[in-house]
Design brief:
alpha/beta, five-stranded mixed beta sheet, two-stranded antiparallel sheet, globular, disordered N terminus
């Protein structure tokens, strides 16, 4: 198995054992190419956005990249500016096979955020128009209920180009959903904080109470 890490030697005293650091060089296509060598093709990456907010859905995306037409600059969506995410979003949609699914606040409150996130990832994978032979999932858990092999990749959005692409699709899609939510529920400022627990958002909850988009199983909304 290959990963997008290189070993860099650290200067040490002569009588000390050599020490090495793993330097993050950004995502690459090595997981995918290694899978293809084993006959596992195509490969899909999947990731989610929105596990931490107090309101709104968690959104998952699954992406199968065209190995001959991979957009330049793919990376963990959190490391990119909004302008760059938007540009890459369009390029991914034009060149790749993409599927998106979400779990809303009700499902999150019923299932818990981890299970709701994995369920959204499952549905995103199953929604791909081409079935993958392998799914690379960001994080420590594999989405249950998919019909092919799957591998959990810790910090996958910084290691796999397919997962990085999925992180961008999920992030941009969710941000757009929360911008629309800000129009419908104008008292909360969702278009600015995307449902995260910012001071302004907490003040709005205190003033207006929760709305249907709030996750009532999350503190401080959760009733003890």
């Amino acid at each position: 198995m290959c990963a997008s890490f290189s070993r860099m030697k650290r200067s040490t005293a002569p009588d000390s054992p050599a020490l090495f650091d793993l330097a993050d060089t950004g995502p690459d296509f090595s997981f995918e190419l290694e899978a293809r060598k084993k006959g596992l093709w195509p490969v899909a990456g999947t990731d989610e956005a929105g596990r931490g907010p107090l309101a709104g859905p968690v959104v998952a995306a699954a992406v199968i990249l065209d190995p001959d037409n991979i957009p330049d600059g793919l990376d963990d969506s959190k490391k990119l500016t909004k302008l760059k995410r938007e540009r890459l979003f369009l390029q991914i949609m034009e060149t790749s096979i993409v599927s998106v699914a979400s779990s809303g606040p009700g499902l999150i409150d019923t299932m818990n955020i981890l299970r709701a996130s994995l369920d959204a990832m499952r549905r995103a994978v199953l929604g791909l128009e081409t079935s993958p032979a392998l799914v690379l999932a960001d994080g420590r858990d594999k989405p249950p209920g998919i019909t092919c092999e799957a591998k959990a990749v810790i910090k996958g959005d910084s290691r796999s180009l397919s997962i990085a692409a999925a992180s961008i699709i999920a992030k941009v899609t969710r941000d757009r959903m929360m911008e629309r939510a800000g129009v419908v529920h104008s008292s909360y400022g969702f278009e600015g904080h995307a449902g995260y627990g910012t001071p302004a958002h907490l003040r709005a909850i205190e003033s207006h109470g929760p709305c249907p988009l709030h996750r009532m199983s999350f503190r401080p909304l959760k009733q003890e």
